[in-house]
Protein 1
Amino acid sequence: MHREKIYPWQLFSLIFIFELGSAVLFALGIQAKQDIWIVVILSYLGAVVVAFVYTRLFYEYKCGLVEYLLKIWGKNLGSVISFMYIVFFLILTAVVTRNFMELLKTAILFLTPSAIITLLYIALITYAVMLGIECIARMSSLYVIIVAVLLVIQYSLFIASKEVDFSSILPILEDGIMLPLKTAFQITLEFPFTEIIAFTTVYPMLSKPQKAFSMTLAALTAAAVVIALNDIFIISILGVNETARISFPLYIAITMVRIGFIQNMDALVVIILVINGFFKVAIFYYACVESIQKLFNFKDYRFLLVPLSAFIIAFTMIYGRNYTEHIELSLKILVPYIQLFVQVLLPFATYIVSIFRKTAC
């Protein structure tokens, strides 16, 4: 395969859209009630520290995730950890796909079998991954402009609809700071902020490697602002109790917009959200196949796409007998335990071991 290259602006757009991805489907941190936006800020601050670790390892070893894991942990243990990341990226590809499959079924494709939706969605993403990260990055750099315009329109419509009551986010820190801190550490730090560990496989393609941290920081900041604003508007429109009860609160909030002839925006909103999801799933999928290629020294990863896509489709269908069970598995097991370990604790351990190895040398 030829050496792919992406530019700093493209990295920013990829991370920004990736962070919004499935995160905007939900009211992240609703466990903290009206302090939901504080949870997002706390998670963002923690994610900046984690992003520093990700990029520092890239700067030190000038290579991607699997390559520096092998150098730092040794061939045997490094291979085991690398394989664990491959499985992790593969599972997240399926889990995020399930989120958007459920959105499509809930919103517009009521009677379409889940298997058909998943098959078509994964087929499109597989084709994008086959074309390579350079192609995906170019698409994101154009699409991010559309996203920015749509976000401005969305917030303007929210305010103009007169459905917003900002008093719903008061009182601030009614139960103290500990609940937002706990929620941030257990949920929103891992989902969505430190999911950018997938970009440790993308950094080596950056045309200006020294821009890795600055672009990551800028994208995280922009995404945190959007997610916090979304949560504030959702709470202000639906209220805390209703938000906690609904599966897709942003979708419901947008459907409540009624301004003259501007109404029934359901289908358009779903299409935009699903496109956001396309980029997130594609990045996870790319991280998986790129890691396999590096671990096993394959010249090309494209021959892996058909069997892996079959696995993703199958896992998407069996991950939870219904959407409620799917969410419970994610929020009670995947996010607070597996993602916390893989995205936060293990990278810190890797960074510490790398320091000791350098000191010993």
Protein 2
Amino acid sequence: MDLTGKLLVAMPGMGDPRFDHSVIYLVSHSDEGAMGLIVNKPAPGVSLADVLDQLESAPPSGGPLHGVHFGGPVETGRGFVLHSDEYCSAIHTLTIAPGFALTATLDILEDIAQGNGPESSLLMLGYSGWGPGQLEGEIAQNGWLTCDVPSGLVFGMTDDKKWAAALESIGIDPLGLSATAGHA
């Protein structure tokens, strides 16, 4: 089972407050583990200008103002840009699935700042990672639901609506979920 390009939707009561109501886009999933980016948790008070300032790069001039998201608790000082797949970095862009690509080099931040970046993007600090079999175990323990990416959810919806929209895309009413799991 390869979940690359799918969403993980946190179940209530999963036990880790960092992932409460999280929606994670899975960048990679294999027998060696998984990596994903939380797409609905903004990093309060952090902007593209702040990131460029830290990297001692030119400030934005002409591009849209971008906030930054908390991609996950692993390597929170490392940056990633999840973006639409029409953009390709001169250095390195990984195409994940139709409509989605990932770039983790400074040139994309500079392109975004200049208004020459991808049509759609989310800037992330940190990522979510799992070792071999760990994610599968968390799914089996009712920590996560998985689903295809509904059109417009990742790039076209406000962060506060993504969790409910992901659940509704698989026919689940968020108000009907319980924090306790049962077995039939």
Protein 3
Amino acid sequence: MSRKATGPTVLVVALVLSGCGVVPDFPPPIPDSYVPTVTVSAEEAVQGNLSSYGFSEAQRMAVRVRNVSCTGVTRGTGFALDSRTLITNKHVVEGTTLLQLNTYDGRDVSVTNSSLAPLADLALVRTTEDLDAYPVLADEDPEEGEPITVVGYPNGGELTVTSGTVIRYTNDPINQNLGEVIYSDAEVEHGSSGSAVLDSEGRLIGVVYAKNTSGASYIIPVSTLKKILAADDEGFTAQENVSCAHASR
């Protein structure tokens, strides 16, 4: 997780006079190579680039996703788009026999169906009960150098908030998405796929879908998500749960 400094440590030199009328030697000069110690409060370490309110909302909208398929179990992350719709990656939920959703406070959420986007690594999951919170979609994609926060469940574990910046826009390295994607230094792990990417005001600016060997993230920008959502039925195609007995024939 990236950390930000609350301010440099102040170097203080104390002069102690041991007797009246005695002037001590001057202290040595501060070395040019002095590097202040970086201190980060526990609250900042947890929240990344988000305010306290933004972090609370991020907790409530992020959902742990577990896809049981014929070939094994895939773990990922999703986030609420509205009260009963979840966004995640296509590769997280495709080929499912059973989708299991779980919130940060341990609540299980039942699924009615899932749909896959044909031109991006995105999927919609519909739920049978209301999700706690969902983000506002940013009006525009983030600019290069802009701070971001990734909220997800790496390795299917605890909710993690990771800070980073937008490095640049680039062609999709695995050819899964429509148009350019964001390359960021926010480090992610397996299970982070489908994580919400938020700006400093808590607005959604993208969705994590891949990483490189050093853990840096690739993100589908919010403009691509909006374009696919606007396509209605053409944007997502419903998938039926797979029967493993049928698939093995």
Protein 4
Amino acid sequence: MGMRAAGVAAATAAVLGGALVATAPAASAAPAAPAAGGTAPACIGRYVTNTPEGFDVHLTNNCGKTMRVQVVVKYAGDSPCYKLAAGASKLYIYEGVLGRYDRTAVC
């Protein structure tokens, strides 16, 4: 029994060790884009218009201070993170078949 238990322990360690190595991030991986945070506050105006090619989102910063926001797209990639000064606006245009407007988030 002692030999069998040692063999099981060694096999388990090998499997777990292999899993840990396989899931470790590569050292040469590119830095990730800023992830979307919580939903942007109400002072960020967002006017969404559906188009035949996708949708447009007109963002307006009515917060009184600089804000960083991005458009979160369901089923496709999100917009870049936009730095909007107080009173500034930005038009994000999505063209694609699958993507749907999900929300506007801070980033």
